[in-house]
Design goal:
45% of the residues lie in helices and 12% in strands. The chain is an alpha/beta fold.
Protein backbone atom coordinates (compact mmCIF):
# COMPACT_ATOMS: atom_id res chain seq x y z
CA UNK A 1 0.00 0.00 0.00
CA UNK A 2 1.15 3.54 -0.84
CA UNK A 3 0.86 5.95 2.05
CA UNK A 4 -1.02 9.07 0.92
CA UNK A 5 -0.63 12.62 2.19
CA UNK A 6 -1.58 16.12 1.14
CA UNK A 7 1.33 18.11 -0.35
CA UNK A 8 2.43 21.22 1.48
CA UNK A 9 2.05 24.59 -0.35
CA UNK A 10 5.82 24.95 -0.55
CA UNK A 11 6.00 21.67 -2.45
CA UNK A 12 3.35 22.75 -4.95
CA UNK A 13 4.82 26.17 -5.68
CA UNK A 14 7.63 24.95 -8.03
CA UNK A 15 5.12 22.89 -10.01
CA UNK A 16 2.68 25.74 -10.56
CA UNK A 17 5.05 28.21 -12.22
CA UNK A 18 3.52 29.28 -15.55
CA UNK A 19 5.73 29.26 -18.61
CA UNK A 20 6.86 32.76 -19.59
CA UNK A 21 4.48 34.38 -22.07
CA UNK A 22 6.04 35.30 -25.41
CA UNK A 23 4.30 38.42 -26.69
CA UNK A 24 5.35 38.21 -30.33
CA UNK A 25 3.24 35.73 -32.33
CA UNK A 26 6.10 34.83 -34.69
CA UNK A 27 8.42 34.11 -31.78
CA UNK A 28 5.73 31.95 -30.18
CA UNK A 29 5.36 29.91 -33.36
CA UNK A 30 9.09 29.45 -33.81
CA UNK A 31 9.66 28.55 -30.16
CA UNK A 32 7.60 25.39 -30.72
CA UNK A 33 9.89 24.17 -33.54
CA UNK A 34 12.37 21.55 -32.34
CA UNK A 35 13.60 20.48 -35.78
CA UNK A 36 13.28 21.30 -39.48
CA UNK A 37 10.22 19.05 -39.77
CA UNK A 38 8.46 21.31 -37.26
CA UNK A 39 9.37 24.39 -39.31
CA UNK A 40 7.99 22.61 -42.37
CA UNK A 41 4.69 21.97 -40.57
CA UNK A 42 4.42 25.63 -39.55
CA UNK A 43 5.29 26.73 -43.09
CA UNK A 44 2.56 24.53 -44.49
CA UNK A 45 -0.01 26.22 -42.28
CA UNK A 46 1.26 29.74 -42.97
CA UNK A 47 1.44 29.77 -46.78
CA UNK A 48 -0.96 29.02 -49.64
CA UNK A 49 -0.83 25.47 -50.90
CA UNK A 50 0.65 26.37 -54.30
CA UNK A 51 3.47 28.31 -52.65
CA UNK A 52 4.26 25.58 -50.16
CA UNK A 53 4.17 22.91 -52.86
CA UNK A 54 6.51 24.94 -55.08
CA UNK A 55 9.09 24.73 -52.29
CA UNK A 56 8.31 21.28 -50.98
CA UNK A 57 7.70 19.43 -54.23
CA UNK A 58 9.90 17.76 -56.82
CA UNK A 59 9.59 16.34 -60.33
CA UNK A 60 7.23 13.61 -61.56
CA UNK A 61 6.78 10.97 -58.82
CA UNK A 62 9.34 12.72 -56.56
CA UNK A 63 11.46 9.57 -56.44
CA UNK A 64 14.75 11.48 -56.71
CA UNK A 65 13.96 13.58 -53.65
CA UNK A 66 12.68 10.65 -51.62
CA UNK A 67 15.71 8.52 -52.51
CA UNK A 68 18.04 11.33 -51.46
CA UNK A 69 16.34 11.56 -48.08
CA UNK A 70 16.35 7.79 -47.75
CA UNK A 71 20.13 7.78 -48.34
CA UNK A 72 20.66 10.08 -45.36
CA UNK A 73 18.38 7.80 -43.33
CA UNK A 74 20.81 4.95 -44.11
CA UNK A 75 23.72 6.80 -42.49
CA UNK A 76 25.31 4.94 -39.59
CA UNK A 77 27.83 6.81 -37.44
CA UNK A 78 30.78 5.11 -35.77
CA UNK A 79 31.50 7.02 -32.57
CA UNK A 80 34.72 7.06 -30.61
CA UNK A 81 34.14 7.48 -26.87
CA UNK A 82 36.17 8.72 -23.88
CA UNK A 83 37.23 11.88 -25.67
CA UNK A 84 37.05 15.46 -24.43
CA UNK A 85 34.34 17.09 -26.56
CA UNK A 86 33.57 20.00 -24.25
CA UNK A 87 34.57 22.45 -27.00
CA UNK A 88 33.63 21.95 -30.66
CA UNK A 89 34.81 23.89 -33.72
CA UNK A 90 32.09 23.85 -36.39
CA UNK A 91 33.98 26.04 -38.88
CA UNK A 92 35.07 24.89 -42.33
CA UNK A 93 37.12 26.39 -45.14
CA UNK A 94 35.17 26.80 -48.37
CA UNK A 95 36.93 27.93 -51.52
CA UNK A 96 39.67 29.74 -49.68
CA UNK A 97 37.72 31.35 -46.83
CA UNK A 98 36.61 30.06 -43.45
CA UNK A 99 32.88 29.72 -42.73
CA UNK A 100 31.43 29.35 -39.25
CA UNK A 101 29.49 26.22 -40.23
CA UNK A 102 30.01 23.44 -42.80
CA UNK A 103 27.14 24.53 -45.00
CA UNK A 104 26.04 27.39 -47.23
CA UNK A 105 22.64 28.67 -48.28
CA UNK A 106 21.77 27.19 -51.66
CA UNK A 107 20.28 29.28 -54.49
CA UNK A 108 16.48 29.27 -54.50
CA UNK A 109 14.24 30.88 -57.07
CA UNK A 110 11.28 33.17 -56.42
CA UNK A 111 12.20 33.57 -52.74
CA UNK A 112 9.90 36.55 -52.07
CA UNK A 113 6.98 34.31 -52.97
CA UNK A 114 7.70 32.26 -49.83
CA UNK A 115 7.78 35.38 -47.65
CA UNK A 116 7.75 39.08 -48.47
CA UNK A 117 11.12 39.58 -46.73
CA UNK A 118 12.73 37.35 -49.34
CA UNK A 119 16.42 37.24 -50.21
CA UNK A 120 17.51 40.26 -48.12
CA UNK A 121 16.42 38.53 -44.93
CA UNK A 122 18.21 35.31 -45.86
CA UNK A 123 21.51 36.99 -46.76
CA UNK A 124 21.28 39.02 -43.52
CA UNK A 125 21.13 35.80 -41.51
CA UNK A 126 24.06 34.43 -43.52
CA UNK A 127 26.03 37.54 -42.58
CA UNK A 128 25.13 37.17 -38.91
CA UNK A 129 26.17 33.53 -38.62
CA UNK A 130 29.12 33.68 -41.01
CA UNK A 131 28.20 31.35 -43.88
CA UNK A 132 27.98 31.94 -47.67
CA UNK A 133 24.71 32.89 -49.33
CA UNK A 134 23.96 32.04 -52.97
CA UNK A 135 21.67 34.31 -54.99
CA UNK A 136 19.80 32.61 -57.82
CA UNK A 137 19.40 33.94 -61.34
CA UNK A 138 15.70 33.33 -60.66
CA UNK A 139 15.82 35.37 -57.47
CA UNK A 140 13.33 38.12 -56.73
CA UNK A 141 15.86 40.70 -55.50
CA UNK A 142 18.58 42.28 -57.63
CA UNK A 143 22.25 41.44 -57.35
CA UNK A 144 22.96 44.94 -56.05
CA UNK A 145 20.13 45.03 -53.50
CA UNK A 146 21.21 41.70 -52.01
CA UNK A 147 24.76 43.02 -51.71
CA UNK A 148 23.50 46.17 -50.00
CA UNK A 149 21.33 44.18 -47.57
CA UNK A 150 24.37 42.42 -46.10
CA UNK A 151 27.64 44.14 -47.06
CA UNK A 152 29.72 41.85 -44.86
CA UNK A 153 28.22 38.57 -46.05
CA UNK A 154 30.09 36.23 -48.33
CA UNK A 155 28.00 36.12 -51.49
CA UNK A 156 27.95 33.62 -54.34
CA UNK A 157 25.93 34.01 -57.55
CA UNK A 158 24.20 31.12 -59.31
CA UNK A 159 23.99 31.48 -63.08
CA UNK A 160 21.79 29.97 -65.77
CA UNK A 161 22.92 30.59 -69.33
CA UNK A 162 20.45 32.15 -71.77
CA UNK A 163 20.06 31.25 -75.39
CA UNK A 164 21.21 34.83 -75.82
CA UNK A 165 24.57 35.09 -74.02
CA UNK A 166 24.48 38.88 -73.64
CA UNK A 167 22.24 38.94 -70.51
CA UNK A 168 24.43 36.28 -68.86
CA UNK A 169 27.56 38.32 -69.55
CA UNK A 170 25.87 41.33 -67.99
CA UNK A 171 24.89 39.36 -64.85
CA UNK A 172 28.41 37.98 -64.46
CA UNK A 173 29.87 41.48 -64.64
CA UNK A 174 27.31 42.87 -62.21
CA UNK A 175 28.04 40.08 -59.73
CA UNK A 176 31.77 40.75 -59.93
CA UNK A 177 31.23 44.50 -59.48
CA UNK A 178 28.97 43.89 -56.45
CA UNK A 179 31.59 41.78 -54.65
CA UNK A 180 30.31 38.24 -55.23
CA UNK A 181 33.38 36.00 -55.04
CA UNK A 182 32.05 32.71 -56.45
CA UNK A 183 30.08 31.96 -59.61
CA UNK A 184 27.93 28.83 -59.57
CA UNK A 185 26.95 27.60 -63.04
CA UNK A 186 23.92 25.31 -63.05
CA UNK A 187 24.14 22.66 -65.78
CA UNK A 188 21.19 20.31 -65.16
CA UNK A 189 18.41 22.40 -66.71
CA UNK A 190 18.48 21.89 -70.51
CA UNK A 191 14.69 21.78 -70.14
CA UNK A 192 12.38 22.25 -67.18
CA UNK A 193 11.47 19.26 -65.04
CA UNK A 194 7.88 18.05 -64.77
CA UNK A 195 6.92 19.59 -61.43
CA UNK A 196 3.47 18.10 -61.19
CA UNK A 197 2.43 19.80 -57.97
CA UNK A 198 2.88 23.17 -59.71
CA UNK A 199 0.85 21.96 -62.70
CA UNK A 200 -1.98 20.68 -60.50
CA UNK A 201 -1.99 23.85 -58.43
CA UNK A 202 -1.96 26.07 -61.51
CA UNK A 203 1.07 27.97 -60.19
CA UNK A 204 2.14 30.79 -62.48
CA UNK A 205 4.62 33.63 -62.26
CA UNK A 206 3.37 35.93 -60.85
CA UNK A 207 0.61 34.02 -59.00
CA UNK A 208 -2.72 34.49 -60.73
CA UNK A 209 -6.00 35.03 -58.91
CA UNK A 210 -8.51 32.26 -59.56
CA UNK A 211 -11.36 30.79 -57.59
CA UNK A 212 -8.95 28.30 -56.01
CA UNK A 213 -6.38 30.92 -55.06
CA UNK A 214 -9.14 33.22 -53.79
CA UNK A 215 -10.41 30.52 -51.44
CA UNK A 216 -6.87 29.66 -50.40
CA UNK A 217 -6.21 33.36 -49.83
CA UNK A 218 -9.08 33.53 -47.37
CA UNK A 219 -7.23 30.94 -45.30
CA UNK A 220 -3.89 32.78 -45.55
CA UNK A 221 -4.77 36.51 -45.41
CA UNK A 222 -1.38 37.61 -44.07
CA UNK A 223 0.43 36.12 -47.05
CA UNK A 224 -1.86 37.85 -49.55
CA UNK A 225 -1.70 41.12 -47.63
CA UNK A 226 2.10 41.01 -47.86
CA UNK A 227 1.90 40.21 -51.58
CA UNK A 228 -0.34 43.18 -52.36
CA UNK A 229 1.37 45.74 -50.10
CA UNK A 230 5.02 45.16 -51.07
CA UNK A 231 6.97 45.54 -54.31
CA UNK A 232 5.48 43.52 -57.20
CA UNK A 233 6.65 39.93 -57.20
CA UNK A 234 8.93 39.30 -60.17
CA UNK A 235 12.20 37.71 -61.20
CA UNK A 236 14.78 40.45 -60.70
CA UNK A 237 17.21 39.21 -63.36
CA UNK A 238 14.76 38.14 -66.08
CA UNK A 239 12.73 40.23 -68.53
CA UNK A 240 10.40 37.41 -69.64
CA UNK A 241 8.52 36.13 -66.60
CA UNK A 242 4.97 35.18 -67.52
CA UNK A 243 3.82 31.56 -67.32
CA UNK A 244 4.88 28.55 -65.29
CA UNK A 245 8.44 28.00 -64.13
CA UNK A 246 8.89 25.12 -66.59
CA UNK A 247 7.64 27.29 -69.46
CA UNK A 248 10.08 30.02 -68.47
CA UNK A 249 13.02 27.60 -68.40
CA UNK A 250 12.12 26.16 -71.79
CA UNK A 251 11.68 29.62 -73.31
CA UNK A 252 14.77 31.35 -71.94
CA UNK A 253 17.48 28.92 -70.87
CA UNK A 254 19.87 27.28 -73.32
CA UNK A 255 19.50 23.52 -73.94
CA UNK A 256 22.72 23.61 -76.00
CA UNK A 257 25.00 24.23 -72.99
CA UNK A 258 28.35 22.41 -73.45
CA UNK A 259 31.83 22.18 -71.98
CA UNK A 260 32.81 25.12 -74.18
CA UNK A 261 30.58 27.33 -72.01
CA UNK A 262 32.32 26.13 -68.86
CA UNK A 263 35.67 26.99 -70.44
CA UNK A 264 34.33 30.40 -71.53
CA UNK A 265 33.15 31.20 -68.00
CA UNK A 266 36.46 30.07 -66.55
CA UNK A 267 38.19 32.67 -68.71
CA UNK A 268 35.62 35.40 -68.08
CA UNK A 269 35.06 35.05 -64.33
CA UNK A 270 37.86 36.28 -62.03
CA UNK A 271 36.71 34.49 -58.88
CA UNK A 272 35.99 30.91 -57.89
CA UNK A 273 33.90 28.78 -60.26
CA UNK A 274 31.56 26.04 -59.02
CA UNK A 275 29.57 23.75 -61.32
CA UNK A 276 26.16 22.77 -59.94
CA UNK A 277 24.16 19.78 -61.10
CA UNK A 278 26.96 17.21 -61.44
CA UNK A 279 25.49 13.69 -61.30
CA UNK A 280 28.37 11.44 -62.34
CA UNK A 281 32.02 10.96 -61.48
CA UNK A 282 32.95 11.36 -65.14
CA UNK A 283 31.28 14.77 -65.40
CA UNK A 284 32.97 15.86 -62.18
CA UNK A 285 36.32 14.99 -63.75
CA UNK A 286 35.48 16.78 -67.02
CA UNK A 287 34.55 20.11 -65.41
CA UNK A 288 37.53 19.89 -63.09
CA UNK A 289 39.76 19.43 -66.13
CA UNK A 290 38.12 22.54 -67.60
CA UNK A 291 39.17 24.62 -64.61
CA UNK A 292 36.29 24.43 -62.12
CA UNK A 293 37.33 25.10 -58.54
CA UNK A 294 34.42 23.08 -57.13
CA UNK A 295 31.68 20.69 -58.13
CA UNK A 296 28.26 20.55 -56.52
CA UNK A 297 26.81 17.03 -56.59
CA UNK A 298 23.15 17.79 -57.02
CA UNK A 299 20.03 16.56 -58.76
CA UNK A 300 18.40 19.98 -58.30
CA UNK A 301 16.60 18.89 -55.17
CA UNK A 302 14.83 16.23 -57.21
CA UNK A 303 13.14 18.98 -59.24
CA UNK A 304 14.54 18.10 -62.69
CA UNK A 305 15.14 14.43 -63.60
CA UNK A 306 13.21 11.94 -61.54
CA UNK A 307 15.08 8.69 -60.80
CA UNK A 308 18.34 10.68 -60.92
CA UNK A 309 21.46 9.51 -59.05
CA UNK A 310 21.53 10.16 -55.31
CA UNK A 311 24.10 12.92 -54.65
CA UNK A 312 25.20 11.60 -51.25
CA UNK A 313 26.13 8.25 -52.81
CA UNK A 314 28.40 10.04 -55.31
CA UNK A 315 30.50 11.84 -52.71
CA UNK A 316 33.11 9.18 -51.98
CA UNK A 317 33.78 8.07 -55.59
CA UNK A 318 33.91 11.69 -56.77
CA UNK A 319 36.42 12.68 -54.11
CA UNK A 320 38.53 9.66 -55.00
CA UNK A 321 38.46 10.62 -58.69
CA UNK A 322 39.32 14.32 -58.52
CA UNK A 323 41.36 14.35 -55.31
CA UNK A 324 42.45 17.82 -54.26
CA UNK A 325 42.09 19.38 -57.72
CA UNK A 326 38.60 20.67 -56.87
CA UNK A 327 36.36 20.81 -53.82
CA UNK A 328 33.29 18.59 -53.68
CA UNK A 329 29.98 19.90 -52.33
CA UNK A 330 26.61 18.16 -52.04
CA UNK A 331 22.94 19.06 -51.71
CA UNK A 332 19.44 17.50 -51.94
CA UNK A 333 17.56 15.81 -49.11
CA UNK A 334 19.29 17.56 -46.20
CA UNK A 335 16.88 18.02 -43.29
CA UNK A 336 19.14 17.60 -40.25
CA UNK A 337 22.54 18.78 -39.09
CA UNK A 338 23.57 15.13 -38.83
CA UNK A 339 23.06 14.89 -42.61
CA UNK A 340 25.67 17.63 -43.06
CA UNK A 341 28.10 15.89 -40.69
CA UNK A 342 27.68 12.64 -42.63
CA UNK A 343 28.31 14.33 -45.97
CA UNK A 344 31.51 15.94 -44.71
CA UNK A 345 32.69 12.69 -43.13
CA UNK A 346 32.23 10.95 -46.49
CA UNK A 347 34.50 13.54 -48.10
CA UNK A 348 32.42 16.56 -49.06
CA UNK A 349 33.93 19.95 -48.36
CA UNK A 350 30.50 21.16 -47.18
CA UNK A 351 26.79 20.96 -47.96
CA UNK A 352 24.32 23.39 -49.45
CA UNK A 353 20.94 23.75 -47.77
CA UNK A 354 17.82 25.00 -49.55
CA UNK A 355 14.43 23.72 -48.44
CA UNK A 356 15.43 23.70 -44.76
CA UNK A 357 15.91 27.45 -44.63
CA UNK A 358 12.94 28.12 -46.91
CA UNK A 359 10.69 26.31 -44.42
CA UNK A 360 12.03 28.70 -41.80
CA UNK A 361 11.45 31.68 -44.08
CA UNK A 362 7.84 30.68 -44.68
CA UNK A 363 7.34 30.00 -40.98
CA UNK A 364 8.65 33.33 -39.75
CA UNK A 365 10.60 35.46 -42.20
CA UNK A 366 14.12 36.41 -41.16
CA UNK A 367 13.59 35.04 -37.65
CA UNK A 368 12.48 31.74 -39.15
CA UNK A 369 15.64 31.49 -41.22
CA UNK A 370 17.69 32.19 -38.09
CA UNK A 371 15.72 29.48 -36.28
CA UNK A 372 16.55 26.98 -39.05
CA UNK A 373 20.24 27.80 -38.69
CA UNK A 374 20.00 27.50 -34.92
CA UNK A 375 18.43 24.06 -35.25
CA UNK A 376 21.01 22.83 -37.75
CA UNK A 377 23.88 24.25 -35.69
CA UNK A 378 22.70 22.44 -32.58
CA UNK A 379 22.34 19.17 -34.48
CA UNK A 380 25.81 19.51 -36.05
CA UNK A 381 27.44 20.28 -32.71
CA UNK A 382 25.65 17.51 -30.81
CA UNK A 383 26.35 14.92 -33.52
CA UNK A 384 30.06 15.78 -33.54
CA UNK A 385 30.23 15.49 -29.75
CA UNK A 386 28.48 12.13 -29.79
CA UNK A 387 30.78 10.88 -32.55
CA UNK A 388 33.78 12.00 -30.52
CA UNK A 389 35.29 14.74 -32.70
CA UNK A 390 35.98 18.34 -31.76
CA UNK A 391 36.43 19.82 -35.23
CA UNK A 392 34.68 19.49 -38.59
CA UNK A 393 38.12 19.05 -40.12
CA UNK A 394 38.57 15.84 -38.08
CA UNK A 395 35.63 14.09 -39.76
CA UNK A 396 36.74 11.10 -41.82
CA UNK A 397 35.08 8.21 -43.71
CA UNK A 398 35.76 5.91 -40.75
CA UNK A 399 33.22 7.92 -38.76
CA UNK A 400 30.31 6.95 -41.02
CA UNK A 401 29.00 4.40 -43.45
CA UNK A 402 25.90 3.99 -45.58
CA UNK A 403 23.98 0.90 -44.59
CA UNK A 404 22.68 -1.28 -47.41
CA UNK A 405 19.17 -0.39 -48.56
Amino acid sequence: MVERRFPRPAELRPLLRPAPFVRNATDRRLARAADIADLRAIARRRTPRAVFDYTDGAADGELSLNRARAAFARVEFHPSVLRDVSAVDTSREMLGRRAALPFAFAPTGFTRMMHAEGEPSVVAVAEEVGIPYTLSTMGTTTIEDVAAAAPGARKWFQLYLWRDRAPAKDLVQRAADAGYDTLMLTVDTPVGGARLRDVRNGLSVPPALSLRTFVDGAMHPNWWFNLFTTEPLRFASLDSTDGTVAELINRVFDPALTMADVEWLRGAWPGKLMIKGIQSVEDARRVTDAGADAVLLSNHGGRQLDRAPVPLELVEPTVQEIGDRAEVYVDTGITNGADIVAAVALGARAALVGRAYLYGLMAGGRRGVAKAVQILTGEITRTMQLIGVTSVDELRPEHVRLRRP
